[in-house]
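Standup notes, protein team

Yesterday: finished cleaning the Bacteroides faecium set.
Today: Glycosyltransferase family 4 protein structure.
Blockers: none.

Input for Glycosyltransferase family 4 protein:
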Amino acid sequence: MAKNIIVSYLGRHGAGAEYSFEMTRGLLAHGCNVYVIISAQVDNLELWKVLPVKKLFLIPTSNHYQDLISATWQFLFKYIGEIKSYFKNIKVDVLYAPMGHPWILVMRYLVFRDAKFVFTCHDPIVHPNEPLLPVLGQRCAIWMADSVVILSKIFFNYMVEHYKKKRENIVVIPHGAFSHYDDVNYVNMEATFPIAKYNFLFFGRITKYKGIEMLAEAYRKLALERNDISLRVIGSGDISEYKEALASCPNTVVENRFVGDNEVCKYFSMPNTITVISYTSASQSGVIPIAMRANSLLIVTNNEGLLEQTLDGQLALISDISMISLYMQMKNAVENFDDHKTMIRKAQDYINSLSWDNLAKILLDHINKAIA
């Protein structure tokens, strides 16, 4: 008998919306009865609307902390009642949260107490300087969850020891590549960017642990030796701390803004793109699958989760978390680019094997065991 699964994602922007959509589509491919509760302001709403789900609930969500109280009040006293009424005569097997949100915990407690709660923990070890509210929310979600999905097996024992979860209640599901990015149109990069022979790319949200200052310093050192390279730093977030360092980097373009789904491909489409994951702390990166799928050579720092994503250096060049080591691997990338094409092909083959149907099947098999 097909499982009744509620997928709830109440964020608005970024990779979480795509990840939730892809896993939902995978569950549908396996014949599940899927009900979706998402933000009415989610970026990829039009994609959700065409999925053959049983019901799509659109919940207005807050984009700012100052609006959070009024939005939460409306959620509690209007939408919780509507959700409870709709599911009054439907036996829900699983409440699945592909990413966390405090309101999902409220629904779990007020509406779906009898369902199994499956929570995806993207960062078992929280990033430095992470705001307190999301950290506490994640701890509560892990504590309340019947099962926890993690994206890297390297953190399996950490979940057992730190969060006291039973081994049978943890499942490892690697991060796949977002297929939607292959379908959208993108602008020709040549009109916007100077195309060098080798093009380094930092892509994603700008935060302290991403190592941008280290990347800028390593790039500047390499640029003293070569005039056939460029650097692009693309993403939203506070870049003020790095403006001066990036301004001194030759042939560099910075776009400090949110990047829509229909633009992602263009940043990986330039010839000889080398994607640099210069993180000083990380459990995994959603940029890695995008780069692999786009045939971009990868340089990643020696963080355990990133190593696992790249099969311990088989699919990427590995740098220590230091400017000199990063510089050496960037130099290696351009001096031996043709020699690394075999690695690029292996990375694409690997990420293509992680289809969302296959990843959803791992989740579904775990669910079937959990509620057997």
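Follow-up from PR in the comments: Residues 181-353 form a domain with the Rossmann fold fold (CATH 3.40.50.2000).
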